[in-house]
Design a protein that fits this description.
Layout (H helix, E strand, L loop, with lengths): L2 H21 L1 H23 L3 H6 L24
Length: 80
């Protein structure tokens, strides 16, 4: 590890310890799980976007290997 990575790791440990001391184990764990859940929701929402929408917001397009029709009815979800 480089010295900058070591500093980040030490500051993360100190920050988590400080949160534990201030709020307790359950509140700290609940906040961590909430953050993980929110990040997963964001990824799931981005996964439902079309290639055109991904390109519009600056994300890379998916490499689609399936031969789906260009038009999919709006009430059906695409699962790539």
């Amino acid at each position: 590890m480089t010295s900058s990575q070591l500093l980040v790791a030490e500051s993360l440990t100190a920050t988590v310890d400080e949160l534990y001391q201030k709020f307790g184990a359950w509140r700290t764990a609940r906040a961590l799980l909430f953050v993980i859940w929110r990040q997963r929701q964001t990824r799931m929402r981005v996964a439902e976007l079309s290639d055109y929408q991904l390109r519009d917001i600056g994300l890379p397009e998916r490499q689609s290997t399936s031969r789906l029709p260009y038009f999919t009815p709006p009430h059906l979800r695409r699962f790539d």
